[in-house]
Amino acid sequence: MAAILDVAKLAGVSKSTVSHVLNNTRFVSSETQRKVKEAAEALHYQPSVVARSLKVKTTKSLGMIVTSTDNPFYAEIISAAQKYCHEIGYDLILCNTEKNPIKTKSYIQVLSQRQVDGILVLCTTYDDVTFSTIAGQKKLPMVVLDSGPTVKYIDKIQDHSYRGGLIATEHLINLGHTRIAHIGGPENKLPAKQRFDGYCQALRDASLPINRDLVIESDLECEGGAAAIKKLLSLREPPSAVFVANDVMAMAAISVASQMGLRIPEDLSIVGYDNISLSEYFNPPLTTVNQHISELAELAVKTLIKRILGSSETETVVMIEPNLVVRQSTCEFKA
Description:
It is built from 12 helices and 12 strands. The protein is α/β, with parallel strands linked by helices. It has 3 domains: 4-47, Orthogonal Bundle (434 Repressor (Amino-terminal Domain)); 61-159 and 293-320, 3-Layer(aba) Sandwich (Rossmann fold); 161-291, Rossmann fold (3-Layer(aba) Sandwich), CATH 3.40.50.2300. Helix 11 (247-259) links the parallel strand 8 (241-244) and strand 9. This is LacI family DNA-binding transcriptional regulator.
């Protein structure tokens, strides 16, 4: 394996000049830069990440802790974050804990040993161990996406879930629906609660009752969406419309309802949440609340880098405003 001294000899310059060129830490003439870069490429030289970090106080690498990659929403956030990191010259190290709190603690230790500059956290659930592990990292800059610990040294990027629940339900009300159900996420997950609160507010604004028989707490997974819609459609008076807390459950609900003989949207209108890529190509294309996934991921990376550079001293909570994307899974109520 080539060393920095080999690059210096081939380029005819000193070791310090090679270091300055590769780390961009001092002015070096364009001709010398060309010689150094050509020599490094010819020798397949790879600088030591740890050594570089000691020189310039950064490894240009970030970690990302996720509890699941199964849900397309989380997979798309990860992809968008990786893309943006690559564009700005950062490496992103992905760690999937598979909802195992012991793995969460282990991965944070590994990322710290790798001397990453900071960590992005995307957790679908928080148990006591995961919460305390993340909240306990005071020296390592962190940004949490979606929901997580509220402490002054951890920044958060969230969508305005209350607003999303409100506009989704208002859309169904404006189409003439009055018996509107809600399939939500776990009540202990803040975005799920906020989406439910928005749903309730829209019903109150329209002077419609909040019928607890039409509200089902689920798990944000396909199986949960399927079970919930079966329960709703078994009611003596089933709903004519459903606001579902994420796209995955909404698409499962459409599939099950169709298998039961209902036409979507003629017999049952359904609104999802997230606007994952697949929602546009589902049958029928899903009306959904757009979370602006790429913007969410890019803003998280920018906020983390700002924290790494020390330009943020207090907790930053950034709310991204959602909007409704109307497609073919909703229509006017027909008595």
